[in-house]
Each structure stands twice: as structure tokens, then as C-alpha cells.
Amino acid sequence: MNFKQLQIRIFVLSWLSYAFYYVSRKNFSVVKTTLHEDLDFTMVQLGTIETLYAASYMVGQFISGALGDKLGPRKLLTFGMLGSAVTSILMGFSVSYSIFAFSLGFNGLFQSTGWANNLKAMTPWFSQDNRGKVTGFWCTCYTVGPIVATALATWFLVQYSWQAAFIGPGILVMLVALLIFFFLVDSPEDVGFKSTDSTVASDVGDDSRTGEKSKSAFMKMITHPTVLVYGVCYAFIKFVRYSFTFWLPWYLYERLSFSKGDAGYISVAFEMGGFFGVIGIGMLSDKYFSNNRSKIVVMCILAMAGSLYLYQLFGSGSMLLNIALLALIGFVLFGGDSVLSASATQDIGGKDATASAVGIVNGIGSIGGVCGGVIPALITEKFGWGALFYFLIFSTAFAGFLLYVCTQRSSGKTQICKEANLEA
């Protein structure tokens, strides 16, 4: 098999892997209203379960990133997918609140292996010059993944039962885990080729300037200022994304009075917009912002704040307008999200520290995911849905301001990745 064929294989397998992580993750959001009605779980209880998930996911990001740089992505991805599948199946056989909380909490730990290690698998096979475009196309996995996951869970729910919406997806994820174990190759060097990625995080390996053993990849990235700023900004973006992921079907059902089936299917518009956003914004970041990709993220964040405001005003007008505005929010949200958490962070980490850098940014960012579980429920129960949307708009605007300050400070410098390799 030649190098090009191997590139295609790695792209497809890693894309498929992360897309299917959602299949054993998104089903809980779809089934949430049924659990409320059939098992009498309250809105706050359901939000608390998702907060446990998000908290364990956050902690797991740091661990999975560090382990991925040491052990390689294939082992971590296989372990994570199998574990996530088992916890999904376990929920399908349970009616206990404590079992749901336990299962989804551990599911978060298993799910945390996916993002950093799939990007780790991709980095050595593709060069930095076209990273925005390649990663943009690759990031469609986390827009298509939720679409497929939502459609599958909704289909199992409507055609069979809420139990089937957990068991069926879990079995499918197990099958994909086996593909990863048998066919993923960790790096070109493992099969006799040279890595195409030339970026190497500074202080990884031996430091020739001092003759002393340098910092590990993880320690270098956890103390890198740009990585930390990216992580904090990503927390606010992820708070908005997880609020939609966790509560959009519920909002459409309870506030806008759509049926359960319609609410599940309409919510797909959010990810559909994101599908085109990650491709379009990724390509633009290569063409115009390769020296500092955070600038285009700032633009996306400002557009996201505006689109959230429009959705709050006009989202209840008609089904078609609702779908169009959800797609707009998804376009700018996922577009900025993918650049910040993937290609821009890959630029910093390079082939030797990608998993650590991505794991740290996503780990800090997952604080927003933790908040996206229970905080929307608390705000909505006390102040209503309108207050929640204004809170999301404020969170978005703050993230844009913070990243803009970072962008201004880094203007005139060389590529972000070179901040990690050379002194500015």
C-alpha cells in the first residue's frame, strides 16, 4: 500500500471513529424527555447526570492526551470506544437514576479518548501547509456524527423503545472499535514512511541549548500561554455548544411544542450547518489566516453572538425559519470551534505533542461542557428560556473579547506553531 492510500485509510478510519463516538453519546439527549415521563427523572436530575458526564470528560481529556502521546492513538481509541459502547448498553438495561449517573459518568471518561487521539492519529500523515483544509474536512466527523447519532437514537426510540436507543447504538460502536484496532496505523514510521509533519513542540525531547533533559510534551503544553488562552476561550464556546447538544431537543419539544420525533429531527439542522461551517472556515483559515488562525475564530464568535440573538427573536416564527437559524448558528459555531480546538492547536503541538496540546485545550474547554449540563436547567427553571439565551449570548461575547485580546497581542508574529518552536 502506497503512502497516499495510507493517508486515505487514516483519514477515513479516524473520521469514522470520532463520528461514532457520538452514537453512544448523543442518544441520552434524544431519550431525555422519555426518561422524564417514564421514569420521573426531573429536569435538574437529568442536567446533573449530564454534568457528571461532562466533568469526567473534562478530567479524561488531560489523561487521554498525555497517554496518547506516549502509547499511540490506536490503543486509546479502541479502549475508549469499547468502554463507551458498554456504558451505553448498560443504560439500556437500567431504570435506576444512580445507574444512569454511574454509566454516563464513566462514558465521559471513555469518550475523552476520542478527540485528542484521533487528531494525534491524523497529524503525522498530513503537512501543516494544508492543515486547515484537511482538518476542516475531517472535522465534519463531529457534525455528521451527531446527525447520525440523533437520527439513529430517534429511530430506535420511535420504532422500538428508549431501551433500544441505548443498546442498538452501543453495538454499532463496538463494531467500529474493532476496525480501529485492526486497521489504524499510529504513524508513517510504523510502516516505513517518513512523517509529513515537520512541526515539533519546543522542549520535547533533549534540549540541545542546555544539554539537559527537557520537559515532557504534556508539561510543555500545559505551561504554554497560547494553549491556556485557547482553552479558556474554548470553555465559553463549548458551553454554548453543549447547551444546544444537551437541551435543544427538549427546548423544541417543551417551549416550541414540536412532537418528540420532530424535535429530534429538527435539532439536526444545528449539526448540518456545522458540517458546512467546519469545511468553509477551515479552508478560509488556510488561505487568509494561517499565520494566526485565532483571528478567524474571533469573527466566527461575533457572528455566533448575532445569530443566537436572531434565534431568540425569530426562532419560534415557523419551522423553516427555525431550521435556517439553527443551521446558521451551527455554521459559525462549529466553524470557529473546529479551528480553535483542532488545526490551531495542532499548529502549536506539532507531531510530538498534538495529543497533549489538544487534550489540554479540550480539557479546559470542557469546563464549559460541565456547565452546559445543569446550568441551563437551573436558569430555565428559575428565569425562563429567554434568560438562558441572553446568558449564552453574553458567554459568546466574552469569549470573543478574550480571544481578540490574544489575537492583538500575537499580531505581527510568525505562525502560531512557531511560537511553540522558536522564540518570538
Task: Please provide a written account of the structure.
The structure is a single chain. The chain has 424 residues and is mainly alpha-helical. It has a single domain, classed as Growth Hormone, Chain: A. The chain is 79% helix and 0% strand. The protein contains 17 helices and no strands. The longest helix is centred in the C-terminal third of the chain and has 65 residues.
TL;DR of this structure?
The protein has 424 residues and is mainly α. 79% of the residues lie in helices and 0% in strands. Mean pLDDT is 84; it is low at 199-213 and 411-424.
Which regions contain 5 or more consecutive residues with pLDDT less than 50? 199-213, 411-424
CATH architecture: Up-down Bundle
Question: What is the total tally of β strands?
Answer: 0
Calculate the terminal CA-CA distance, rounded to whole Å.
41 Å
If helices are DSSP runs of H or I spanning 4 or more residues, what is the number of helices? 17
Estimate the mean pLDDT confidence.
84
Order of helices and strands: HHHHHHHHHHHHHHHHH
- Structural classification: mainly alpha
How many domains would you count in the coordinates? 1
Shape: globular
Main sheet properties: none
CATH superfamily: MFS general substrate transporter like domains
Helix content: over 70%
